[in-house]
Amino acid sequence: MITSIAHATIYVLNQDEALDFYKNRLGFEVGDDMQVEGGFRWLTVYPTSKPQLQLVLAEPKEGPMFSKDAAEKIRGLIEEGAFGAGVFETEDCRKTYAELLTKGVEFIQPPTEQLYGVEAMGLDNSGNWFSLVQRKK
Amino acid sequence: MVSNNKLKRLHASRDYIADNFQTSLSLSEMASQSYMSQYHFLRAFKESYGETPNEFLIRLRVEQAKNMLITENFSVSEVCEKVGYTSLGSFSSLFLKQTGMAPTLYRRKLWALSSEAFRFPSQVIPACYAYRFLGKWPR
């Protein structure tokens, strides 16, 4: 039986800038930030109250996984907003939305009533979409 | 459940701990950042974050120590001091408890695994990532 998810990947254009965004704007904590052999930077962040789920902030670069062409295509797709970072939950969507706006987070949809709760949609500084959701109780 | 206002105050303490973990921090000093009594602070912190302030502090110190042991050439005593411990014995036993290895053994093992000086070996990250980004098949 699988019990939980420990890591999920968000592809970003620049790890330093993404770290600044997730840490200083969204308020995430840094999990690991280490230089691994082979020039790879292993960088993870997590929401303060959930260290069990680490989000890996990874740059698509030429290497074993991507050819140069594929890495460039992925970067282009990130810039176009083709990818999503996922759904972030909050106790109070409107309040968190207002807080994040003051921190310069860009939103493409303000808090809106949905069947499952209140949801706003934002963009990280690479162009990944994310939902900010307050679940119905 | 902890109220939003209380949570905000707890965040202030948590940030304070994160910013000052290399110094000797007392519970009263941590609690004062949240304007709570030590007792209430301890309870609310554990309820909100799933770990006590001291557990959080130890985790930060050990994580920093792990990093320094691999990427820096400091002695274990120097690392111990730099992450906020005055007693090498306490530091070593907390490190052992968190990682399952004494600091010297941790350093020796990871340095031996890495093909580059002062870099973490790929084995410290999940194999699926090591394979995808570094082309290293798990051994």
From TrEMBL, chain A:
Q: Where is the VOC domain?
A: 4-135
The record's SUPFAM superfamilies line, in alphabetical order, gives: Glyoxalase/Bleomycin resistance protein/Dihydroxybiphenyl dioxygenase
Question: InterPro entries attached here?
Answer: Glyas_Bleomycin-R_OHBP_Dase (IPR029068), Glyas_Fos-R_dOase_dom (IPR004360), VOC_core (IPR037523)
**A Pfam family hit:** Glyoxalase
Gene3D superfamilies assigned: 2,3-Dihydroxybiphenyl 1,2-Dioxygenase, domain 1
Q: What is this protein called?
A: VOC family protein
Automatic annotation (TrEMBL), chain B:
Kindly name one Pfam family recorded for this protein: HTH_18
Q: Which domain of life is it from?
A: Bacteria
Q: Where is the HTH araC/xylS-type domain?
A: 11-109
Stored Gene3D superfamilies: Homeodomain-like (1.10.10.60)
Alphabetically ordered keywords of this record: DNA-binding, Transcription, Transcription regulation
PANTHER family listed in its UniProt record: ARAC-FAMILY TRANSCRIPTIONAL REGULATOR, HTH-TYPE TRANSCRIPTIONAL ACTIVATOR RHAS
**Record-given protein name:** Helix-turn-helix transcriptional regulator
